Predict the 3D structure of the following.
Amino acid sequence: MSIRWQLLLSHLAVVAVAAVAMVIVARLSVDRAVDQLSLANHRLSETVLTKSGERLVMAQAQAVAQELARLLAGRDSADYAALRRDQALRAIATQDIRSQFGPAGYTDVYDQTGLAVLHPNKTVEGRNFAEWREKFPQMWELVRNSLHTPVSQGYYDFIDKNNAPRKKFMAMVHVPRTKLIVVAAVDIDSYFKPVQARIAAEGQRIKDQALDQVWGHILAGLAAAMLIGLACALFFAQRISQPVRRLAQGVAALGGGDFSVAVRADGAREIKALAQAFNRLGGELVAHIERLKAETAARLAVASEMKVARQIQESLLPSTFPPFPEKRELRLYAINQPAKDVAGDFYDFFLVGPERLALVMGDVSGKGVPAALFMTMTRTLLRNICPDEPDPARALAKANELLCQDNDASMFVTLFLAYYEIDSGRMVYANAGHNDPCVIAADGAARCFGRMGDVALGALAGQSYAAGWLDLAPGETLALYTDGITEAPSPDGREFGMDRFEQLLTANADRDVEDICRLVVEAANQFQAGERFDDVTIMLLRRAAT
């Protein structure tokens, strides 16, 4: 039964003066309790969600610091120019911090002097945060404290580009074994504003609904005041105020961290609706926090597994350069950069005789983990077949038969295999549908060769492959590569192209093979504006001039 009907029925017993007094008291009690409940709900949402956000931001800063420590292992972390050119490292160091509602902040890196090393806004790089100590003293104080503290965090006031004040939170973590510091900064309002606004709006709606009902009851009470007695007025005031007091007690428990608290939903229809909304709030907060924890843990687990997979794959590719320091007749260098966490492209080289070197360049169909597994199987087969098979064409035919067996996924790999005689410079080769290799003369002239018209390995069983030969003259350089370079797309849809690739090789023919490899990879990455479409792999072998 509604409050209005209760007051109308009490018309028969309550005297006017007592009824007016009790109705006014009831009105004031409900108004105060509902205000307290709305205020407590809003404060609770800010406290709980903000604390959760602080932990998530700190977790992201720590994850970035660990990733940078891994990427910088063995590198000169004080060479800031090189770090800024490394697009993969930049992508890790300056990533967006996102909530379920969109971007809310970013990460950047400075050193232990306060100098900005990597920042989403490149105009900040190379500047010291001390420049802003007067404009943003709170921010500078946090930066200054972080220079000697491994892990720190705090809030500061910020003025955005529209001269609007913002409250920001930043977490700072030192990168192990370096003098670099990762900072993760978010706009707290942007991070949680949509959730807080939703909670505030719901609280205001419930408050308005409750107050509208109470006003109706007050009018009924005023009409009943002429006849209703003091005893009935006290009874009905009790009926109204008791559920509200229980709600106020529940709010206090919720504010203390007990998200499982629930109040009894009884009394008048409007108060019951308010209690039911309050009971739902605690459960929704618990569910939201648990979802955030589960999602964060899942993302970290997947990221960790993919890091291990990439480390395993990198260990399979030759990584010691120069690989044969005692053989001064040649210079050899190679680079492999995956489009995803692991690559389908691969290169390999190994001796198949005292003075005979096997050279391999392959590109597996697809990307990611399936391509990486197929790449590993192909590499292993070639390493087992080539030492016993002096003809590269027959070696490819044997590998093709094995790869076609039980190939339910219909994967294939384009591959170039060559046997290079170190003393004479003669090279015998076979090409299973791979890109044409290039030879760069000492004077910079470039020519391509090796188009045999044979199909990729794993595509069709029973295939035979043709062999060709080439004499590499003193001072000439052999370039093996994948289409991740020549077919690299620009943001406006253009391809890097073979002409641009050959011009780059020609213009730098007098440089060391390692320098040329790095220049080509950097040029392809810049052409794609940092968004790699495919794995990028290149290997150069140069025969000594004398």
Observations:
- The longest strand covers residues 102-111.
- The mean pLDDT is 85.
- The first helix runs from residue 3 to 9.
- Residues 137 and 156 are 8 Å apart (CA to CA).
